[in-house]
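Section 5: illustrative case.
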């Protein structure tokens, strides 16, 4: 076994690998960029080497620097994590030239999966099922169209060099073929410099089911069952689970064995994932093989009880696989939710900022948090804005899902916008609970997840108001308990008044709408109940707060909600989803002032896709100015106010560093 390894990565995956190495008594070397000088992974490693500037192409993507760091520290092997250099065949080749073990597959296996049509050819020979289609060398439009006509529409055109959903077009009718073909080719040419196409049957309701495989250098191969990753937004996974729901043992074995065949067809070694599309009729088709550890590997770890990083290290060191197929069993059910600094209500725009407050749920045998950040750390513009992976386990899907909802409701972050609310709404919505899931889940259930058809807040507004008056009463009691005369009438909180009703006026805003609420507190024995009126409707409420949970009875209907209060924002995590209210304070001045300054810097690292204006243009507030692409998504940069564009610093196709000034802009005088 190695005595020292280098981790050519950052963030949660670097920390994850260090944990296992430590457990195995292996020393670790971290590498870091300027922006990561004080980061958690650097702190956790035994040694750390600075390899360059903050943008990843000046540090984490520099093969030479990483290899130099390994040589300097005497690390015998490099774990690449995922992303960065993990699927870079050239890097893998350089490692072996230097006598450093690359903890991953052989160069040839990485290269074999590089082109979609070449990969398909290999899989076809190995008799792995492929989506019906054409992936031949003859690229004439007539040949490809004939293949589409023969199999019937809809079809999907894909760039053979593709990735990240680029160069892909659905074609629904024969007469749309020419247009779709031209568009897909254009996009492929500009994204990959290669416009070769393949065509396949477009499945309208597929699931994304992937198999974790492991091979050693002694001809052994096993599969560690499947993960369902159908819940995606623009081909990015959001919540993953293992095992997949409604899988028969027979299908599981068939898919597992196919995955092993795929891996063996390319002489695979180490951890890999074979991705399949699973159709409604139970047919499954090879999509691609990821030749590295996946982000979502922890769900497999929780249902199998295995440490996949330990397996990787053992295999890379030449050992045989720790377990044979018959020794692997599925135990219970696991979910992973990816906690991101991003704004789901603004097209999932990555968010940046300082994690002023960070309190993850308490870890236990049911809850695991894989993270690379601490309270006070910065989510910078330079890297993927993932804050953590929240992984939960329990005996059944139903119970694990309850764990997920609870853990999400306990995840407290302030300082940056996160997707926690979105994840909570997703995890608690009926179609997800009922596993009515395919790859278009988010699109199809948009209205429920985003609360689009704004349901009445008839239950939630009184709950939020009740929470406010109860917490005020609690604070008053706590204060009274500290005084010399805790029983003074001035310290009572039970609605005792001379000749007068005890009435509170509260204003709560939800999604920009303000709701005036009247709360009348009434005595009942030694306690109180409340008459809460919103929009002329009055309900009778009682409740108590315990450990940040509000137990409420509204007109006799009892329910509870976890409450997170942050300054004047109240988040109510309820069975119907999460509801965010702003408590509008009467004497705090204008809360609604629109803060429109700044914003003409790149929100993240990316590529300029399209500049929509010229220097000298007059623009109006909110007008789209530029479209940038990062992390497989397009983001529109808009004018912060009316004004003039003085100068443009980027053109189409330019790489842009996060934080870079994009245009010079003069706002119109108000
Ligand atoms: P890329 O490499 O560009 O990400 P993939 O081939 O991996 O492209 O496909 C990405 C996603 O597109 C899949 O996860 C799936 O949701 C969808 N997809 C791919 N092929 C098909 C198909 N034949 N029918 C329906 N959906 C598909």
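Designed sequence:
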């Amino acid at each position: 076994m190695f005595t020292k390894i280098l981790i050519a990565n950052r963030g949660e995956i670097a920390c994850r690998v260090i944990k296992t190495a430590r457990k195995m008594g292996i020393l670790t070397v971290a590498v870091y960029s300027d922006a990561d000088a004080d980061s958690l992974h650097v702190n956790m490693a035994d040694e750390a080497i600075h390899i360059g500037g903050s943008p990843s192409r000046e540090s984490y993507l520099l093969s030479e620097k990483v290899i130099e760091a390994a040589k300097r520290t005497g690390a015998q092997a490099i774990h690449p994590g995922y992303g960065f250099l993990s699927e870079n065949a050239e890097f893998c080749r350089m490692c072996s030239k230097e006598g450093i073990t690359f903890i991953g597959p052989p160069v040839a296996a990485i290269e074999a999966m590089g082109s979609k049509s070449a990969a398909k050819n290999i899989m076809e020979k190995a008799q792995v099922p492929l989506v019906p289609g054409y992936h031949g060398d003859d690229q004439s439009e007539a040949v490809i169209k004939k293949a589409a006509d023969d199999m019937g529409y809809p079809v999907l055109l894909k760039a053979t060099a593709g990735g990240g959903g680029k160069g892909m077009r659905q074609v629904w009718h024969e007469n749309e073929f020419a247009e779709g073909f031209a568009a897909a080719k254009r996009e492929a040419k500009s994204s990959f410099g290669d416009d070769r196409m393949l065509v396949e049957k477009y499945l309208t309701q597929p699931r994304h089911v992937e198999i974790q495989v492991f091979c050693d250098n002694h001809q052994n191969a096993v599969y560690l069952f499947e993960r369902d990753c159908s819940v995606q937004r623009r081909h990015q996974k959001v919540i993953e689970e293992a095992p997949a729901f409604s899988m028969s043992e027979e299908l599981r074995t068939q898919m597992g064995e196919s995955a092993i065949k795929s891996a063996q067809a390319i002489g695979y070694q180490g951890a890999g994932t074979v991705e399949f599309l699973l159709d409604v009729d139970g047919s499954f088709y090879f999509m691609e093989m990821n030749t590295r550890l996946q982000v979502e590997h922890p769900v497999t770890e929780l249902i199998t009880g295995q440490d996949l990083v330990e397996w990787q290290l053992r295999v890379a060191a030449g050992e045989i696989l720790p377990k044979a197929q018959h020794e692997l069993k599925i135990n219970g059910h696991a979910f992973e939710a990816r906690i991101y600094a991003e704004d789901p209500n603004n097209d999932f725009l990555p968010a940046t900022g300082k994690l002023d407050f960070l309190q993850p749920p308490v870890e236990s045998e049911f809850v695991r948090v894989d993270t690379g950040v601490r309270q006070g750390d910065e989510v910078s513009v330079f890297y993927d804005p993932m804050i953590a992976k929240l992984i939960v386990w329990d005996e059944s899907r139903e119970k694990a899902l309850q764990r997920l909802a609870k853990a999400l409701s306990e995840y407290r972050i302030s300082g940056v916008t996160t997707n926690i609310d979105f994840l909570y709404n997703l995890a608690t919505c009926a179609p997800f609970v009922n596993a009515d899931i395919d790859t278009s889940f988010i699109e199809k259930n948009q209205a429920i997840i985003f609360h689009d058809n704004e349901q009445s807040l008839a239950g939630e507004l009184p709950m939020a108001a009740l929470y406010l008056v109860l917490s005020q009463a609690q604070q008053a009691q706590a204060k009274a308990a500290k005084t010399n005369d805790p029983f003074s009438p001035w310290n009572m909180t039970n609605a005792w008044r001379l000749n007068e009703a005890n009435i509170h006026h509260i204003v709560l805003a939800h999604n920009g709408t303000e709701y005036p609420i009247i709360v009348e507190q009434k005595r009942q024995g030694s306690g109180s109940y409340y008459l809460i009126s919103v929009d002329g409707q009055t309900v009778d409420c009682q409740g108590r707060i315990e450990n940040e949970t509000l137990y409420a009875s509204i007109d006799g209907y009892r329910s509870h909600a976890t409450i997170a209060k942050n300054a004047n924002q109240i988040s109510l995590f309820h069975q119907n989803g999460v509801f965010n209210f702003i408590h509008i304070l009467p004497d705090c001045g204008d809360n609604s002032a629109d803060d429109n300054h700044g914003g003409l810097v790149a929100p993240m690292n990316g590529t300029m896709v399209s500049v929509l204006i010229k220097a000298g243009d007059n623009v109006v507030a909110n007008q789209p100015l530029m479209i940038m692409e990062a992390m497989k998504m397009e983001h529109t940069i808009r004018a912060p106010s009316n004004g003039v564009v003085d100068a443009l610093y980027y053109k189409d196709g330019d790489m842009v560093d996060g934080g870079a000034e994009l245009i010079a802009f003069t706002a119109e005088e108000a």
